Each structure stands twice: as structure tokens, then as C-alpha cells.
């Protein structure tokens, strides 16, 4: 999972056409990962990114089930979209793939991948998308922090539970560490990555 900007391939039109620049950066990142699949392996990655502009506007983009959550007055607000195969079944089928729904398991693309969008995953790429969803959020005096985390957090904690677990911890590094430890204590079996950005 990529938690911070994949924008080593930043587009020069970032300030004039932010959304298009982000989409191009995601496409470029996916292309580089695919080109290096022999070295990196056949797997893939989800991603969530956040760009704060002038301290007032937050632009969040993501592919897959890595998630951004904002705490405002102690209330959790999800800023990203979880790309679940069941929600994008028609698009996957248009690309020639299928979504399995075996009892006791989560829906999977071609019976394998539990997300509909990702970087990499070369063997499934023809049926997957790396196109990000992008949202814009106003940052004001009531915004306390932004939490970026992989699904290892979200499989065992709700958005509000995650916010409640760290809202009294002032140091963002300590807050992220505490949230990771909380997920481990709840027996999370997925990848766990987390960044906390404190505001004001």
C-alpha cells in the first residue's frame, strides 16, 4: 500500500488541473510497477494519497481499500472510496473478468483479488482498474486529524473506533503506532500500515 504521494511522476499541470494531474500520476505509478513486475513480483498494492493545498483544501485519491478518514469535532468522516469487486461487477465483466461470491468468503475478481482497483497485479490487470477516486474536503478549525491506513486497520476497526482510539494522543507518530498495536491486538491478519496527520 502506498500511503503518501506516488507522485514521483508529478504532472506539470498539477496547480491548474489537479484532478487530471493526480489521475496521470496514478497511471504512471501503475505503469512503473507493472514494468518492474519481474523484480517486484506478480502482486499489487492499494493506495491512498492526500494533498493539502494552502492549509485549507485536502485532495484525497485512492485505489483499492486503503482508506482516508478525517476526524472533525471527534466524529469520523470517510474521505475515500473502498473499491469492492461487488460494487464494480459490471465494469469488471465488461473487461472480460468475473466476480466470484463463494459463501464464507469475500467477493473476488476472477476468484483471486478482493479489490476491484489496484496498482500492479499483472496477471489480473486486464480486468482491474488503477483509476483513482478523488474527493475534495475543506479543512477548518474543527478538523483535528486525518488518518490514512491500509485494510489491516479497517478489517478490525470501524472509522469511528479508529478515531476514538487515537483522538487523545497528541503526537501523530505515537497515534499511528497505537492504532497499529490496537489492530494487532484484535488479531488483524491483513497488511497494517498507518499515517496520522495532525492539524492546527
Automatic annotation (TrEMBL):
A molecular function GO annotation: protein serine/threonine phosphatase activity
Domain of life: Eukaryota
Catalytic class of the enzyme: hydrolase
Pfam family, one: PP2C
Keyword Manganese included in the entry's annotation: yes
SMART domains per record: PP2Cc
UniProt keywords, alphabetically: Hydrolase, Magnesium, Manganese, Metal-binding, Protein phosphatase
Domain PPM-type phosphatase: 1-199
Keyword Cell membrane tagged: no
Cofactor: Mg(2+); Mn(2+)
Family: Belongs to the PP2C family.
Protein name: protein-serine/threonine phosphatase
Amino acid at each position: 500500500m502506498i500511503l503518501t504521494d506516488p507522485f514521483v511522476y508529478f504532472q506539470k499541470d498539477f496547480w491548474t488541473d489537479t484532478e487530471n494531474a493526480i489521475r496521470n500520476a496514478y497511471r504512471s505509478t501503475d505503469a512503473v510497477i507493472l514494468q518492474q513486475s519481474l523484480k517486484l513480483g506478480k502482486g499489487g498494492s492499494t493506495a491512498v494519497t492526500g494533498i493539502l493545498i494552502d492549509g485549507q483544501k485536502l485532495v484525497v485519491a485512492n485505489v483499492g481499500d486503503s482508506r482516508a478518514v478525517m476526524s472533525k469535532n471527534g466524529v469520523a468522516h470517510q474521505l475515500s472510496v473502498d473499491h469492492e469487486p461487488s460494487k464494480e461487477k459490471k465494469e469488471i465483466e465488461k473487461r472480460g473478468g468475473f466476480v466470484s461470491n463463494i459463501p464464507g468468503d469475500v467477493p473476488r475478481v476472477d476468484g483471486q483479488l478482493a479489490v476491484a482497483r489496484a496498482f500492479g497485479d499483472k496477471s489480473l490487470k486486464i480486468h482491474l482498474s488503477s483509476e483513482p477516486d478523488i474527493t475534495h474536503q475543506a479543512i477548518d478549525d474543527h478538523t483535528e486529524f486525518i488518518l490514512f491506513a491500509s485494510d489491516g486497520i479497517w478489517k478490525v476497526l470501524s472509522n469511528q473506533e479508529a478515531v476514538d482510539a487515537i483522538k487523545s494522543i497528541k503526537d501523530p507518530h505515537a497515534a499511528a503506532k497505537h492504532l497499529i498495536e490496537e489492530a494487532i491486538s484484535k488479531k488483524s491478519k491483513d497488511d497494517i500500515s498507518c499515517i496520522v496527520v495532525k492539524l492546527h
